[in-house]
Amino acid sequence: MGIIDRLRSATSLAGMVIALMVLGAGVAAAQEPIRIGSILSVTGPASFLGDPEQKTLEMYVERLNAAGGVIGRKLQLTIYDDGGDAEKARTFTKRLIEQDKVDVIVGGSTTGTTMAAIPLVEQAQIPFISLAGAVGIIEPVKKWVFKTPHTDRMACEKIFADMRERKLVKVALISGTGGFDKSMRAECLKVAGRYGIEIVADETYGAADSDMTAQLTKIKATPGLQAVLNAGFGQGPVIVTRNYRQLGITVPLYQSHGVASKQFIKLAGDAAEGVRLPAAALLVAELLPDTDPQKAVVVAYKRDYEARYKSDVSTFGGHAYDGLMLVVDAIKRAGSTDKAKVRDAIENTHGYIGTGGVVNLSATDHLGLDLSAFRMLEVKNGDWALVK
Fold first, then answer.
1. What DSSP designation does 149 have?
2. What residues are paired with 38 via a beta bridge?
3. Directed axis angle between helix 339-347 and helix 315-334, to 10°?
């Protein structure tokens, strides 16, 4: 073989090697997992939120992977339990970003833990879908932050609209001192006047309080009292509900969507009878008419969750389902995990039917739900019933 032939052969071989290297790199990239990070309050005082959220994410990531993943890639889920502690949430968010190199974050069970994570995700420019309730999470709009649950302001509006229909206008507030509680109280005070509601008493309780009799006794003595609204979540509303009945207060009691699970009814017992609150359709899945666009989604999620975990479904797990599926849908439409493209795809979501409602996001609305997504429920015979 001549010199020219040997050079040609070497050049051809080098070209093949380079082509194989490029092909190999492409295959390797295609096999890289889609990294989904999550900070949840799986233990601690907000475990009733974080536990079903974790179970939901794990179940559906497993299902998606069994079906081949998303855009040809498997999902890799990394969850850290912040125990409801904002500082731990901040630390774990930093770890997800810097060490785990996640593509998106779904989580933040509480308002406090979510707010701790927001500055970090905004700086790192990572799409973040919160599972917490306060309106301050998305107002003002933050470029990289979205959320799935109805806001505390929406809860106030739904409750006040129901009160107005019942001609209940003199209302007492009782609320906790946590992030969600304080935010909802503030929002209720802002919007009460729009619905002709007069706040005639305003009491608070601490996170560690085990008896609210003193506050409720003051409320009971308020002249002209027609209804009471408890802005809070966790054990506080359960104690309020029990003390309420023990004191023989007979005016209607309303709770927030922060206790929208069967667990509230179980813990409050007979005292919960007659309590009203706004919640997602998920809690009354089978009661929805067949024409309701959400029925198929909420019935399927409820069936799958309860069959897998042998426990009652809650709206909180539903928030995690919606967060994950919004991300999956966005990645499919973006055709990649490029963070900016995924963020844009999330923001351009229209007509997504989830457990929380029909979602239509935009550059000025990072929740995408209107008041019709809330259903007014009442506890009847130890279970949820739709208020007609």
1. S
2. 79
3. 120
| Fold match between domain 33-150+297-373 and domain 153-279 | yes
Contact 105, 37 (CB under 8 A): yes
Per-residue pLDDT tens, the chain, 388 aa: give them. Answer: 554 454 355 445 445 444 445 444 444 445 899 999 999 999 999 999 999 999 999 999 999 999 999 999 999 999 999 999 999 999 999 999 999 999 999 999 999 999 999 999 999 999 999 999 999 999 999 999 999 999 999 999 999 999 999 999 999 999 999 888 999 999 999 999 999 999 999 999 998 899 999 999 999 999 999 999 999 988 999 999 999 999 999 999 999 998 998 999 999 999 999 999 999 999 999 999 999 999 999 999 999 999 999 999 999 999 999 999 999 999 999 999 999 999 999 999 999 999 999 999 999 999 999 998 899 999 999 999 999 7
- Where are the domains positioned within the chain? 33-150+297-373, 153-279
Cα 348 → chain centroid: 19
CATH of 33-150+297-373, one of 2.40.33.20, 3.40.50.2300, 3.10.129.10, 3.30.70.100: 3.40.50.2300
> For residues 132 and 113, is the Cβ–Cβ distance under 8 A?
yes
pTM for this entry? 0.86
As a CATH number, domain 153-279 is 3.40.50.2300
